TrEMBL record:
Superkingdom as given in the UniProt entry: Bacteria
Protein name, UniProt field: (2Fe-2S)-binding protein
Family matches, as InterPro entries: Cholesterol_7-desaturase, Homotrim_ring_OHase_catalytic, Rieske_2Fe-2S, Rieske_2Fe-2S_sf
Classification via Gene3D superfamilies: 2.20.25.10, Naphthalene 1,2-dioxygenase Alpha Subunit, Chain A, domain 1 (3.90.380.10)
Pfam families: Aromatic_hydrox, Rieske
GO molecular function: 2 iron, 2 sulfur cluster binding; metal ion binding; oxidoreductase activity
Keywords: 2Fe-2S, Iron, Iron-sulfur, Metal-binding, Oxidoreductase
Lineage: Bacteria, Pseudomonadati, Nitrospinota/Tectimicrobiota group, Candidatus Tectimicrobiota, Candidatus Entotheonellia
Organism: Entotheonella factor
PANTHER family: BLR4922 PROTEIN (PTHR21266:SF59), IRON-SULFUR DOMAIN CONTAINING PROTEIN (PTHR21266)
């Protein structure tokens, strides 16, 4: 993760321990080693054994009285397990309670949350920005799955008419896409209308003011460190957690979340999320529609970009949120300068949108 190799092994208390995947003795990969004793991992080369804190507790080939015991160390990473998923603290500073960084719905038993994971050949920032991008009414307009999940009968706007930032916290921004545009518009540059055809649809456009599951004012949210959330309805939430593997690969965790109140709702939610949601949202939308245009060999994020009114949330994410990262704030130790820099960049972002 983040370009670093990590070895995982069972801890004594039933948790998961994480160490840098190199033995400090001769550089062998600890992930190729063995769990010979509770709460430890032993190097496959010489049997140097490390506990959950990364401390060498036994040098099996050097004897019980080895001078390296207690002195030889490898970096360890604090971990926590939530909904069967291992979260790793990769920061340079002290970890905070996991509840501060992981969305609250993953801790509430009222919510059914089913995780999905796969490696995407793309930079992690692209998939986060995609959740607040105006591609939806264009990229997802033509697909066959829209007939199967009935979204083909929902009115789609011809374009987005801007983004409105409605909430900002220390680690997130919430925003609402303005989608109150007609289903068809005339574009004088091509002397034609888009969309090309419009037919009667009985499901109206969703308005920005519709109450969301968390009863928040936003429809979409960017959240540090690398989370994108979409309130798809009053009971459904689509949470995407992008874990960078390296510059061009991302371990994509997606949580389908449904709020329930009764046992039969929980049973239905588990079935829906594991089958229908996986087929038509995770596979049908994310992996078969979004991913093909965002792959590192099909989209160049380093190319010059000119962002517009529909990209205001992306501008906020790029310019404001990195300054709020916990390590940046802790290590810089000049809070007043951070605020001034954020204000200056916000002004520049607004001017860019205005242009």
């Amino acid at each position: 993760m983040l370009g670093e190799d990590i070895a995982f092994f069972p801890g004594k208390d039933g948790g998961i321990a994480a160490l840098w995947d190199r033995c400090p003795h001769r550089g062998a990969y600890l992930s190729r080693g063995f769990c010979l004793f509770d709460g430890t991992v032993s190097c496959p080369y010489h049997g140097y054994t490390f506990d959950e804190t990364g401390t060498c507790v036994a040098a099996l080939t050097e004897g019980p009285d080895s001078g390296l015991n207690g002195k030889l160390r490898v970096r360890h990473y604090p971990t926590a397990v939530v909904r069967g998923v291992v979260f790793v603290w990769m920061g340079e500073t002290e970890p905070v309670p996991i509840e501060e960084d992981v969305p609250e719905e993953l801790f509430d038993p009222e919510y059914v949350a089913v995780p999905y994971a796969s490696i995407w050949p793309m930079n992690w920032t692209l998939t986060i920005e995609n959740s607040g991008d105006s591609h939806n009414s264009y990229l997802h307009r033509f697909r066959l799955r829209r007939l199967i999940n009935f979204s083909a009968f929902q009115q789609l706007p011809a374009y987005w008419s801007g983004i409105r930032i409605v909430e900002e916290t220390d680690n997130s921004i919430g925003f609402v896409p303005a989608v109150d545009a007609p289903q068809q518009a005339y574009y004088p540059g091509v002397e034609a209308k888009w969309s090309r055809q419009v037919w009667w649809r009985w499901r109206k456009q969703r308005k920005p003011g519709v109450e969301t599951m968390a009863k928040q004012p936003y429809r979409n949210q960017y959240r540090l460190p690398s989370i994108a959330r979409v309130n798809t309805s009053i009971t459904h939430l689509h949470t995407r957690y992008a874990t960078p593997v390296d510059e061009n690969h991302t371990l994509m965790w997606t949580f389908g979340v449904i709020r329930t109140q009764t046992w039969w709702q929980k049973l239905w939610a588990k079935f829906y999320l594991r089958f229908w949601y996986y087929i038509f949202t995770i596979r049908g939308v994310n992996e078969l529609e979004d991913l093909p245009v965002q792959r590192y060999d099909r989209l160049d994020p380093t190319a010059p970009q000119k962002l517009g009114a529909n990209d205001q949330a992306i501008i906020y994410w790029r310019r404001r949120m990195p300054l709020k990262s916990r390590d940046n704030v802790r290590l810089w130790k000049k809070g007043v300068h951070i605020v001034e820099e954020m204000e200056a960049q916000e002004l520049a972002a607004q001017q860019e949108v205005g242009d």
